[in-house]
């Protein structure tokens, strides 16, 4: 029996077939709208619109903000806005010192963080490292529901439940509207953000790292706090900054519980007003759209926007800078 | 402190023969050869630990202390039994290899030694592992303390996302080491044969090292806690041949000070590095059992059990 030669017509067919396949691979017809059916084109278009819509809306909002802010600064000098700490936009003698509002916002947000960071991180450590899986399966969704409670409810909770306690502790001359009460309730609102996102970050730490630490004679506490938490640091920091952004942007609860009195340099037991609460106040009334009260609304909103944008950049930078790649 | 000495019967001498033979039978357990014992080899040579278990123990001329003494150790994951009634010694300051096909319970057994299985919900150990006079699987024995005394190196290098220095110092810190940390780190890295490669970049992340270096860092990390025993779970299986050779050399060196137990899939590796070998096998029901234990040389050149010979010669996967 004669040996078959490897080269034959079959071989050639295979080769040309492979070449054909490769040509298709190398020149994918992604933009081949020529082959697309009308229905396909319609869907393609619809998907494109939805994908870009939110981007356009954002750009639109920013443009409106910039436009109206520029209008505002035509009438009010820059120095009156950023160089003053007195705010009285609705009085006859108008003052637009935005620092009075920044003070209120900053104080409430920081009180909120002071409440939320310990609570949120402890909850995250518990859920990720201590809790049996079944308990976590129940607790975590409940925690996330907390984030879905309407913020107006939190506002009244602050007034009716937190403020009385604060007055019991610090004396009855403390007003029912105060920054501490608003700050605590904002803190409770952002606990789920910190707990949930930090827990995700901690659970993403590979099991092998935990085993390595246990094998060196670590207790569960040492594994949690000295290995898992540092390894998840970037995610934890990102969750805190996101929570801070949320606290800065929080509106309803602080409008209700904060007091509506823009004051710079006051303590946490005084009434304050945040930027968001001021925007609510300005836009609720019958403020004419050409008035200066209307335009300052945008200047305040712009300040808020720049602030939260800055926070987001910091969050990005921190989570990038301190990212610990474990694989 | 209990000091068990192996007794001696067989003439074949392992590499580090210490004392002369003292013709004694351990606990008088000589029994008839089991069904699958090779007839020629069984002529008065093999000694059964327990006739029911069909495990064979070679006798050897070396007089060695035991670091661990296993007695009827069984392990379970929930209702699944992973290993069944294993009885054997782990000789002190020697390298003991646990070999056997996949799923025979080697890693499970290894993780019994430092109570790592405690971390798995539903895992359970029965029997006795005697360590310095105490049964270390007793629930009253603190698993954290056990793990400090019995270190572990894992299959895949798992350095912490910290600096090289902090990786080594970590275990010492959590155990309250109060001496000169710089010296401890240097000493541990030297003993892990890594110092010369990393001494100028101790602040660099441990994760920036190559795989082989990472594994040696993990060994340094284990040494820094000053354990008595180091368990290694296929420590070179994720490494290239050169890095593997370095780890193997290291194991030989470390055996002078530590007791080493290594799980390996690699027969040549077991042959190269270990003084003693335990061959484990799981039957149809997937329960791992000890088939044969003895000096590596004897297990490899003159196995008593037919199944050991089959495995050594490559007739199992």
List keywords for this structure.
heterodimer; A: 327 residues; mainly alpha; MetI-like fold; 72% helix; disordered N terminus; B: 317 residues; alpha/beta; Rossmann fold; four-stranded antiparallel β-sheet; 10 helices; 12 strands
Write the SSE topology:
The complex is a heterodimer of chains A (327) and B (317).
Chain A: H1 9-26, H2 38-75, H3 78-82, H4 99-130, H5 133-146, H6 151-170, H7 179-203, H8 207-215, H9 220-231, H10 233-249, H11 252-257, H12 275-284, H13 292-321
Helix pairs in contact in A: 2-13, 4-7, 4-10, 5-7, 6-7, 7-10, 8-9, 10-13, 12-13
Chain B: E1 47-48, E2 56-57, E3 66-77, E4 80-91, E5 95-99, H1 106-113, E6 123-131, E7 134-135, H2 143-149, E8 150-153, H3 164-174, H4 181-191, H5 195-198, H6 211-224, E9 229-233, H7 241-254, E10 259-263, H8 267-273, E11 276-282, E12 288-295, H9 296-301, H10 306-312
Parallel strand pairs in B: 2-12, 5-10, 5-11, 8-9, 9-10
Antiparallel strand pairs in B: 1-2, 3-4, 3-6, 6-7, 11-12
Helix pairs in contact in B: 3-4, 3-6, 4-6, 6-7
Commentary on this structure:
- The complex is a heterodimer of chains A (327) and B (317).
- Chain A is mainly alpha-helical.
- Chain A has a domain at 108-289 and 307-321: MetI-like fold (Orthogonal Bundle).
- Helices cover 72% and strands 0% of the residues of chain A.
- Chain A has 13 helices and no strands.
- In chain A, helix 4 (99-130) packs parallel to helix 7.
- The longest helix of chain A has 38 residues, at 38-75.
- Chain A is flat and about 95 Å long.
- Residues 1-8 of chain A have low confidence and may be disordered.
- The longest helix of chain B has 14 residues, at 211-224.
- In chain B, 28% of the residues lie in helices and 23% in strands.
- In chain B, the strands form 2 sheets. Chain B has an 8-stranded mixed β-sheet, sandwiched between helices. Chain B has a 4-stranded antiparallel β-sheet with strand order 4-3-6-7, with helices on one face.
- By secondary structure, chain B is of the alpha/beta class.
């Amino acid at each position: 029996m004669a040996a078959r030669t490897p080269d034959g017509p079959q071989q050639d067919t295979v080769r040309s077939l492979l070449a054909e396949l490769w040509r298709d691979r190398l020149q994918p017809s992604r933009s081949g709208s020529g082959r697309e059916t009308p229905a396909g084109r319609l869907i393609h278009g619809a998907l494109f619109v939805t994908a870009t819509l939110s981007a356009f809306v954002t750009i639109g909002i920013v443009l409106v903000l910039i436009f109206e802010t520029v209008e505002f600064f035509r009438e009010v000098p820059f120095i009156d806005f950023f160089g003053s700490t007195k705010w009285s936009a609705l009085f006859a003698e108008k003052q637009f010192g935005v620092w009075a509002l920044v003070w209120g916002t900053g104080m409430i947000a920081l009180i909120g963080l002071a409440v939320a960071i310990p609570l949120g991180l402890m909850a995250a450590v518990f859920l990720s490292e201590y809790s049996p899986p079944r308990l976590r399966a129940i607790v975590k969704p409940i925690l996330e529901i907390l984030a879905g409670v309407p913020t107006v409810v939190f506002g009244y909770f602050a007034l009716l439940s937190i403020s009385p306690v604060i007055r019991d502790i610090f004396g009855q001359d403390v007003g029912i509207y105060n920054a501490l009460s608003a700050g605590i309730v904002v803190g409770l609102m952002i606990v789920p953000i910190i707990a949930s996102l930090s827990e995700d970050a901690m659970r993403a730490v590979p099991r092998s790292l935990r085993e390595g630490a246990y094998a060196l004679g670590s207790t569960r506490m040492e594994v949690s706090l000295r290995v898992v938490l540092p390894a998840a640091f970037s995610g934890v920091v990102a969750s805190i900054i996101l929570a801070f952004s949320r606290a800065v942007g929080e509106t309803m609860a602080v409008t209700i519980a904060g007091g509506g009195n823009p004051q710079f340099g006051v303590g946490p037991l005084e009434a304050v007003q945040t930027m968001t609460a001021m925007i609510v106040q300005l836009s609720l009334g019958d403020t004419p759209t050409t008035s200066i009260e209307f335009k300052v609304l945008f200047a305040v909103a712009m300040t808020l926007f720049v602030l939260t944008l800055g926070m987001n950049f910091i969050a990005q930078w921190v989570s990038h800078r301190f990212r610990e790649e474990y694989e | 402190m209990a000091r068990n000495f192996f007794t001696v019967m067989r003439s074949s001498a392992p590499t580090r023969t210490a004392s002369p033979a003292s013709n004694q039978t351990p606990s008088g357990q000589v029994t008839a050869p089991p069904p699958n014992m090779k007839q020629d080899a069984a002529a008065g040579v093999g000694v059964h630990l327990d006739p029911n278990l069909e495990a064979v123990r070679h006798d050897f001329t070396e007089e060695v202390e035991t670091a661990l003494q296993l007695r009827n150790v069984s392990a379970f994951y929930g209702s699944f039994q992973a290993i069944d009634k294993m009885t054997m010694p782990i000789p002190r300051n020697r390298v003991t290899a646990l070999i056997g096909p996949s799923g025979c319970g080697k890693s499970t057994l290894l993780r019994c030694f430092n109570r790592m299985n405690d971390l798995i919900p539903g895992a359970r150990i029965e029997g006795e592992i005697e360590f310095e006079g105490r049964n270390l699987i007793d629930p009253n024995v603190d698993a954290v303390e056990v793990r400090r005394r019995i270190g572990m190196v894992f299959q895949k290098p798992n350095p912490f996302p910290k600096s090289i220095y902090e990786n080594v110092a970590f275990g010492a810190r959590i155990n309250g080491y109060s001496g000169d940390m710089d010296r401890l780190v240097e000493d541990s890295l030297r003993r892990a044969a890594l110092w010369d490669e990393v001494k100028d970049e101790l602040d660099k992340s441990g994760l920036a090292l190559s795989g082989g270096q990472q594994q040696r860092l993990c060994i340094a990390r284990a040494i820094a806690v000053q354990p008595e025993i180091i368990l290694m779970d296929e420590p070179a299986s994720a490494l290239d041949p050169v890095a593997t050779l370095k780890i193997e050399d290291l194991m030989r060196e470390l055996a002078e000070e530590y007791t080493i137990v290594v799980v390996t899939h690699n027969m040549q590796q077991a042959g190269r590095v270990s003084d003693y070998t335990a061959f484990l096998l799981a039957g149809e029901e997937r329960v791992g059992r000890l088939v044969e234990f003895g000096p590596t040389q004897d297990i490899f050149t003159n196995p008593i059990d037919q199944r050991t010979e089959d495995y050594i010669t490559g007739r199992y996967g």
